[in-house]
Design goal:
Blueprint (H helix, E strand, L loop, with lengths): L13 H10 L16 E4 L23 E3 L4 E3 L5 E15 L11 E3 L9 E4 L2 E3 L5 E13 L5 E7 L4 H12 L14 E11 L5 E12 L2 H15 L9 H8 L4
Parallel strand pairs: 1-9
Antiparallel strand pairs: 1-2, 2-3, 4-5, 4-8, 4-10, 6-7, 7-8, 8-9, 10-11
């Protein structure tokens, strides 16, 4: 994924793309491992440390609703957004070793709600365990960001109130068909992603990612998706989360 092909350099024809899209019908929508990517797409909120001048990870000029990709040191206006080619979608229940901000990485992942562990559901998609751990219902979209100096791989994470946005997005993706009528692979279309505000009765405001207009991926873009999908199929793609992702989850008002 780090050596992406240059625009205009692919030898794929339109016929090749249609044939390969049929061969990969529905690809990326099934459970797969994600890339070893540090380019986490983070939506900033009022409580995000990137907005606090006293915090070491303060980002100058950042405001609530902006998008911060720390691995690229890239700040994007939430209204401007970015173009995103999804390659892999995955739903997991992720167990964290403690409250956000205490450090550590996930200690376990479950394909569905792990009822055998007990615990208390303190909000939809969020469970506190007796041992102090937390389990968070998490939806991932791994793919490639376009529109900057060069394309780069990144991961979008949806939890809590963002769950509905992820569900709506995957349903829109499932409705996309190849010319043959078969379900298109996840990376057949490019999506423009922005943020929008939400609020509750207590007056709290936060922002969520939203997939907007989609366009058919170019042949170059489709080939990038093919390469990433090949890595997913060979189990070379993994999720690596760190404390910053956990902090981002905790900043949402459940």
């Amino acid at each position: 994924m780090n050596n992406l092909i240059k625009p205009g350099s692919t030898d794929l024809t339109d016929e090749d793309v249609e044939r390969l899209a049929d061969e990969r019908s529905g690809a990326g929508i099934q459970d797969r491992e994600e890339d070893r990517v540090q380019s986490w797409v983070k939506v900033l909120h009022q409580l995000s440390p990137e907005l606090n001048m006293r915090q070491p990870n303060y980002v100058e000029g950042a405001k609530a609703g902006d998008i911060w990709i720390a691995g690229r040191q890239l700040l994007i206006s939430g209204t401007q957004g970015f173009d995103f080619l999804p390659v892999v979608y995955r739903l997991e229940w992720v167990e964290w070793p403690g409250q956000p901000g205490t450090g550590g990485r996930p200690v376990a992942r479950y394909p569905k709600a792990p009822e055998q562990h007990g615990g208390t559901q303190i909000a939809p998609g969020k469970i506190d365990l007796p041992n102090g751990h937390q389990i968070i219902e998490t939806r991932y979209f791994m793919g490639v960001v376009f529109g900057f100096e060069e394309p780069f791989p990144a991961i979008l994470t949806f939890t809590s109130t963002g769950t509905d946005q992820a569900k709506n997005w995957i349903q829109r993706i499932r409705s996309k068909k190849n010319a043959s009528g078969k379900m298109a692979p996840l990376y057949r279309y490019m999506w423009h992603v922005t943020t929008f505000p939400m609020s509750n009765k207590a007056g709290q405001e936060w922002y969520l990612l939203k997939a907007g207009k989609e366009t058919l991926a170019t042949n170059d873009q489709f080939k990038i998706g093919l390469e990433a999908d090949d890595k997913a199929r060979s189990d070379q793609l993994k999720i690596i989360e760190d404390e910053s992702v956990q902090q981002s989850i905790d900043s949402l008002p459940f």
